[in-house]
What does this fold into?
Amino acid sequence: QVQLVESGGGLVQPGGSLRLSCVASGTNRFSIYSMYWYRQASEKQRELVAGINKAGTNTNYADFVKGRFTISRDNAKNTVYLQMNSLQPEDTGVYYCNLGGADWGQGTQVTVSS
It folds into this structure.
């Protein structure tokens, strides 16, 4: 059974940075899946933040994070990352990684506040 574990969330001031990580276990096929980061703010629907193809050669971003967030992956470590810069209060929420559009992690809380 695939397990995804996110980490790296926390409390940060506006303008600050965080790097999220998501480690996949229970699969030896991590490298064949596209990976995604989603987020969900309180009382809002979960929304796609960024995606990366299996080789890490193609990425896509929601308009609201373009130029601020960077998704990357290390297939040797079964890990996907989300580097988040210039964070704003509206970036607050629980961030989830998703493997291949199917499996979800438990999420990591990101709070941007002064």
Observations:
- The chain has a mean pLDDT of 96.
- DSSP finds no helices and eleven strands in the chain.
